[in-house]
């Protein structure tokens, strides 16, 4: 009951602030487009990069081609639109895989502690000694170009952050009285972890993970731009920008619009993250409410 | 305040272990994950002899643990392989690029923090005013821009369309030849000042502005948002409330006490900021043809020059560890609680 | 002997604006403090005792609103011209807090903080003079080696030492009234007694009045000249300490006294008052204690009892004690 009220307040807070509402709409639009893009692109063959059309090269934006055409005469709008599918797959894939590695490591290290825990966290720290993305770069260079390799490379540089977060949460939860109660009641360690530790330690991690999707999209695009991401002619946004780079002086739109798509999507995720963080902080929430003129 | 010698020694020993960890993970990724590492090492169009030579160089005929020891030995003796793109030893290539990157990153950091911290403090003090909202929008958008795209757009608009600033390379070769400029430290701004070479100095300044600003965008947003968040947190803490209750002036409470509490964690986060920035430099240097380690790494990646890539990655990772150690030491100087 | 009244609180009501509405934390509270007197505000959490203290010290949090009332300090209404009219340090009410560790900024040496307070209020600019004054008070709070303490960071000192430092800071500008907001709650029992002794000594030496806020009636009895019992934002009973302890009138006060563990009776059961405090957002119409009161009557539900002087210098708000029936 109380919890429900709490969530309702957070939701109303997000909707009441215009900026947060916009960000919510951007994220929803991104997800909807990402799922439906393969079925609704106006020029499917252009979108997938299966054809080229020399006569239509470098056409500026027009009614027929709202974002113009690229160096091979393909409809840029179709390619950018389909790019949202790839970004969605990358975001979900990277975050999902990172969670799949990070959560077990964090929970086991946090719950059992001792030597196993120390060893696991030392390994985590070793990964964290690399600047963000650098590890993904070596991995991607080693595995070679491709969508799956890109997702694996990013996830492997990503999971240590979740392992740390889960580890800290598990440590907190572990010392709660109800865990002792469960132990006294004779529940096995596996059951305690599954029933009590994981659900309670996971909420902050899942929230963080959902909000990290923007960063995943951004970093994947960066890798594609420097040539270790997806393979051409995949219409991934970072690769599209890179393709438009050569002709930027006479056909600026080819590099411009895919970048704008990245920017808009990531802004959506990051603004939403910001709004959620603020509404989750009771002190800030109070001040926001006062400012919104919620009935006092 | 001097930090204890023990603390410094402890940190340096830790640093050595961190670097060993970095080398270990790199070893695993580059030697154990690929089915035939020598193929990657020899490059895409290698002959059979070249592949065989790469096999020898990597000691792939020996057991794994000996491979690792020899790998460490090769690393320490500077035997990092030959870049097949530039045909010179990777270690020579990499070390010659470091100062260019450092110059760019230092200037970018200077912009980012000199502007970021005051803006963050202002936003915190004017919490929920239009200033705060504007800062929030700018910093969120700024942190969401793909840096390579921003570099392209800035280069296009200021370099090509408006023609205000040159937007490639560190300095014009003609000016270097005509004025007889000889870099000593490798930091061109510093060198040109020392040698009193005004034309080179002006040209260098002109050329560093755009890439530095583009590179500064992300750390600026990070430092601003962090400063704001920490300041708001600090202002709600009991020790600030006590000073208010004891009647000290607002100026003293804010600028003498709270500001220090705010800056300490912001400085502690410098290392991570640096990490993001140096990775950003990979893309920014590529676009602005800035001959630093980022440009070298990006070119190597684009041409599948594997030994060069690994050299860059290890160098950057070690550099990052050193910076983090330095930041921790600075942190321990300004925060008495950290001193061990 | 009529002593000068140093502080008069009249009809003070304070609200907190929070997420789900308004908490009426303090309602119609009136009391006085004489010069050189120690008055204890006693109550459980949520009784509004701390809010009253913060209001007097001028240190209420941002979301607190003083709905009505007056706080008259040394003859001047404090609320109508706050902040401006504190020309002398004697017009400043100082406060010490519950948690000495959180009270002091961890990044600054103790000496720096106390020097700033002295410099600001006593208008001394000579660093040597400031330092001397600071050391004098660090010595006055019986800190061993004041020089070392002066140069220490808060994390280098123990909780008990820090609370002494805080007391030194608060008294260093020679205030006429000190608010002590549960200054011993976070300390070990042995330290509690030391700090209480210290406060009593300093009071005698400096002639400062103290408003001592605590949830512990035993502590209040030890230090207070007078005790005010608060519950749910209202005053329930007020009397001189001995009077209140030996002749408690309000059922709530009696309940509190029974909660004090009695060391001379072995195996006595620890008592507590059953029930929880009411919802401060919607205070009941009648007596706010009615649901937990063992002697509740029909009238208690509907009519709010007024605070009346039932015995001499002994005020109580309860329907059991009505003036006309005396």
Mean pLDDT of chain B: 90
CATH architecture of chain A: Orthogonal Bundle
- What string, H for helix and E for strand, traces the elements of chain A in order? HHHHHHHHHHHHH
- For the record, the count of structural domains of chain A works out to 1
Distance between the termini of chain A: 21 Å
Question: Count of DSSP E strands of chain B?
Answer: 0
SS field, number of helical segments of chain B: 15
What is the N-to-C order of secondary-structure elements of chain B (H for helix, E for strand)? HHHHHHHHHHHHHHH
* Whole-angstrom Rg of chain B: 24 Å
Say how many strands of chain A there are. 0
Give the DSSP E fraction of chain B (strand runs of 2 or more residues): under 5%
Oligomer: heterotrimer
Rg of chain A (C-alpha, Å): 23 Å
- Residues in helices of chain A, as a percent range: over 70%
Can you offer a commentary on this structure?
The complex is a heterotrimer of chains A (296), B (340) and C (326). Chain A is mostly helical and 296 residues long. Chain A has 13 helices and no strands. In chain A, 76% of the residues lie in helices and 0% in strands. Residues 286-296 of chain A have low confidence and may be disordered. Chain A has helices at residues 2-16, 18-40, 44-48, 76-112, 114-128, 134-143, 147-174, 177-184, 189-211, 213-225, 237-245, 253-280, 282-292. In chain A, helix 4 runs parallel beside helix 7 (147-174), helix 4 runs antiparallel to helix 9 and helix 7 (147-174) crosses helix 9. With 340 residues, chain B is mainly alpha-helical. In chain B, 76% of the residues lie in helices and 0% in strands. Chain B has helices at residues 5-32, 37-42, 48-57, 64-76, 90-125, 130-144, 147-161, 173-179, 188-194, 198-235, 238-245, 250-268, 270-287, 293-302, 306-334. The longest helix of chain B has 38 residues, at 198-235. In chain B, 44% of the residues are buried. Chain C is an alpha/beta fold and 326 residues long. In chain C, strands 6-7-8-3-9-10-12-11 form an eight-stranded mixed β-sheet, with helices on both faces. In chain C, strands 2-1-4-5 form a four-stranded antiparallel β-sheet, with helices on one face. In chain C, helix 4 (127-140) crosses helix 6 and helix 6 packs parallel to helix 7. The longest helix of chain C is centred in the middle third of the chain and has 18 residues, at 189-206. Chain C is globular. The mean pLDDT of chain C is 86.
């Amino acid at each position: 009951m109380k919890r429900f009220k709490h969530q309702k307040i957070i939701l109303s807070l997000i909707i009441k602030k215009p900026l947060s509402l916009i960000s919510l709409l951007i994220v929803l639009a991104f997800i909807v487009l990402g799922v439906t893009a393969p079925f609704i692109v106006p020029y499917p063959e252009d979108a997938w990069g299966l054809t080229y059309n020399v006569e239509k090269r470098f056409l500026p934006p027009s009614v027929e081609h709202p974002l113009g055409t690229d160096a091979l005469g393909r409809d840029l709008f179709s390619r950018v639109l389909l790019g949202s599918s790839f970004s969605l797959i990358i975001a979900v894939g990277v975050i999902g895989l990172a969670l799949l590695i990070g959560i077990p490591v964090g929970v086991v290290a946090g719950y059992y502690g001792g030597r196993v825990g120390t060893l696991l966290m030392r390994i985590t720290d070793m990964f964290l000694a690399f600047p963000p993305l650098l590890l993904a770069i070596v991995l991607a260079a080693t595995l070679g170009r491709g969508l799956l390799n890109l997702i694996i490379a990013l996830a492997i540089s990503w999971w240590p952050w979740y392992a740390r977060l889960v580890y800290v949460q598990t440590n907190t939860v572990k010392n709660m009285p109800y865990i002792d109660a469960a132990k006294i009641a004779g529940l096995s360690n596996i059951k305690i972890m599954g029933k009590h530790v994981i659900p309670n330690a996971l909420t902050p991690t899942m929230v963080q993970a959902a909000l990290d999707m923007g960063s995943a999209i951004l970093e994947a695009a960066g890798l594609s731009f420097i040539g270790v991401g997806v393979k051409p002619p995949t219409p991934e946004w970072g690769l599209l920008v890179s393709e438009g780079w050569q002709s930027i002086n006479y056909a600026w739109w080819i590099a411009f619009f895919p970048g704008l798509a990245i920017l808009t999507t990531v802004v959506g995720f990051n603004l939403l993250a910001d709004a959620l963080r603020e509404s989750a902080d009771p002190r800030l929430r109070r001040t926001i409410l006062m400012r919104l003129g919620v009935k006092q | 305040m001097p930090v204890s010698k023990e603390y410094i020694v402890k940190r340096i020993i830790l640093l050595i272990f961190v670097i060993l960890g970095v080398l270990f993970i790199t070893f695993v990724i580059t030697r154990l994950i690929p089915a035939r590492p020598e193929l990657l090492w020899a490059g895409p169009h290698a002959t059979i002899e070249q592949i065989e030579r790469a096999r020898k160089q990597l000691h792939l005929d020996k057991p794994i643990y000996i491979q690792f020891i020899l790998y460490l030995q090769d690393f320490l003796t500077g035997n990092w392989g030959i870049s097949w793109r530039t045909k010179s030893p990777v270690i020579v290539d990499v070390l010659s690029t470091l100062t260019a990157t450092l110059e760019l990153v230092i200037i970018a950091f200077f912009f980012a923090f000199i502007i970021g911290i005051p803006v963050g403090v202002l936003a915190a003090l004017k919490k929920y005013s239009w200033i705060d909202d504007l800062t929030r929008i700018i910093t969120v958008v700024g942190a969401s821009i793909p840096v390579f795209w921003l570099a392209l757009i800035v280069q296009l608009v200021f370099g090509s369309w408006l023609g205000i600033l040159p937007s490639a390379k560190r300095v014009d070769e003609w000016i270097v030849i005509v004025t007889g400029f000889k870099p000593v430290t490798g930091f061109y701004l510093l060198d040109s000042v020392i040698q009193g070479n005004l034309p080179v100095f002006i040209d260098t300044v002109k050329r560093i502005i755009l890439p530095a600003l583009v590179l500064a965008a992300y750390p600026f947003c990070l430092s601003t948002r962090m400063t704001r968040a920490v300041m708001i947190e600090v202002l709600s803490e009991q020790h600030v409330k006590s000073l208010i209750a004891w009647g000290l002036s607002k100026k003293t409470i804010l600028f003498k006490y709270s500001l220090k509490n705010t800056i300490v964690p912001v400085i502690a986060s410098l290392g991570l900021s640096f990490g993001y920035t140096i990775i950003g430099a990979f893309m920014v240097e590529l676009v602005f043809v800035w001959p630093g380690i980022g440009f070298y790494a990006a070119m190597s990646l684009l041409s599948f020059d594997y030994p060069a890539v690994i050299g860059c990655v290890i160098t950057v990772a070690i550099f990052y560890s050193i910076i983090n150690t330095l930041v921790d030491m600075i942190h321990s100087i300004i925060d008495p609680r950290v001193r061990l | 002997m009529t002593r000068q009244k140093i502080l008069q609180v009249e009809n003070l009501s304070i609200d907190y604006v929070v997420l789900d509405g308004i908490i009426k934390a303090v309602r119609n509270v009136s009391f006085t403090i004489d010069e050189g007197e120690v008055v204890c505000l006693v109550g459980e959490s949520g009784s509004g005792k701390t809010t009253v203290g913060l209001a007097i010290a001028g240190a209420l949090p941002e979301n607190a609103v003083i709905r009505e009332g007056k706080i008259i300090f040394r003859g001047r209404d404090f609320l109508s011209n706050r902040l401006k009219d504190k020309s002398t340090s004697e017009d400043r009410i100082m406060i010490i807090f519950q948690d000495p560790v959180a009270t002091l900024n961890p990044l600054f040496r103790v000496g720096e903080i106390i020097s700033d307070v002295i410099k600001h209020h006593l208008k001394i600019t000579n660093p040597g003079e400031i330092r001397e004054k600071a050391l004098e008070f660090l010595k006055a709070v019986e800190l061993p080696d004041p020089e070392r303490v002066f140069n220490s960071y808060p994390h280098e000192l123990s909780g008990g030492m820090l609370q002494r430092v805080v007391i030194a800071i608060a008294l260093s500008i020679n205030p006429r009234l000190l608010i002590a907001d549960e200054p011993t709650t976070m300390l070990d029992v042995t330290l509690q007694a030391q700090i209480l002794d210290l406060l009593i000594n300093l009071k005698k030496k400096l002639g400062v009045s103290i408003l001592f806020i605590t949830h512990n009636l035993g502590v209040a009895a030890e230090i207070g000249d007078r005790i005010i019992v608060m519950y749910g934002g209202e005053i329930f009973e007020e009397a001189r300490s001995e009077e209140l302890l030996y002749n408690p009138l309000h059922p709530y006060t009696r309940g509190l006294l029974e909660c004090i563990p009695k060391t001379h009776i072995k195996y006595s059961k620890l008592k507590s008052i059953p029930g929880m405090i009411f919802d401060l957002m919607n205070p009941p119409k009648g007596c706010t204690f009615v649901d937990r009161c063992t002697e509740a009557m029909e009238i208690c539900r509907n009519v709010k009892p007024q605070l009346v002087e039932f015995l001499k210098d002994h005020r109580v708000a309860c329907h059991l004690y009505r003036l006309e029936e005396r």
